[in-house]
Specification:
mainly beta, Phosphorylase Kinase, domain 1, Elongation Factor Tu (Ef-tu), domain 3, 2 domains, 6-stranded mixed sheet, 6-stranded antiparallel sheet
Length: about 190
């Protein structure tokens, strides 16, 4: 699995819209890639700095190669978008075993985690979002529901990634400032 090659985001320029959470089979290019457990579709919009026309062409080529092959890849959520203060750790351990299907988990004590913060668990490739965090009980309410069991050896990682297949992409051909160019990705999750 490869990583989307550009991470020089314009400050606060990323937006992620959860389009759907569907419990059904999904096929791409006549191959079944998801069965029964459901998938999500995200619309990921960002603005990135290109230092040359060569970089812009490279990004176009990368996206074109993914749309033709349905190869899975990941896109990093910039830490600047996450609502964590400078003292907040980027990783927090799960306190106890929690089964797939749950929407709340217990964490070891940590700083306040704001609603809307994205994260992954260390034991599977899936992006989640914080709904609420009770700092008194250290309970984290998440969406969607937990897809894989987690336990005390699992940690929550706020260096978050979307993992998935590209459904479509759109790049603005004209920069909106001197060196920045916008793009949109629609991603079907690979879980």
């Amino acid at each position: 699995m490869t990583t989307f090659p550009y991470n020089r985001w314009e400050d606060k320029s990323i937006s992620i819209n959860d389009i759907s959470d569907v419990d059904s089979d999904l096929t791409l290019n006549k191959s079944l890639i998801r069965k029964d457990n459901g998938f999500q579709q995200y619309e990921f919009e960002g603005t990135t700095l290109f230092q040359s026309q060569k970089e812009a062409k490279s990004l176009y080529a990368y996206l074109a190669s993914k749309s033709g092959s349905f190869e899975s890849f990941k896109v990093q959520i910039p830490l600047g978008l996450q609502m964590l203060d400078n003292t907040h750790p980027t990783k927090v351990n799960v306190k106890e075993e929690t089964k797939a299907g749950e929407t709340s988990i217990m964490l070891v004590p940590s700083s306040q985690i704001e609603a809307g913060t994205y994260f992954n668990f260390s034991n599977h490739n899936k992006m989640y979002m914080v709904v609420s965090h009770n700092i008194t009980t250290n309970t984290l309410v998440i969406r969607p529901e937990l897809r894989v069991d987690v336990n005390a050896t699992t940690f929550v990682d706020f260096n978050a990634y979307i993992y998935g297949y590209q459904k479509s992409n759109e790049l603005s051909r004209e920069p909106h400032t001197a060196n920045y160019q916008k793009f949109k990705l629609k991603i079907i999750e690979d879980v």
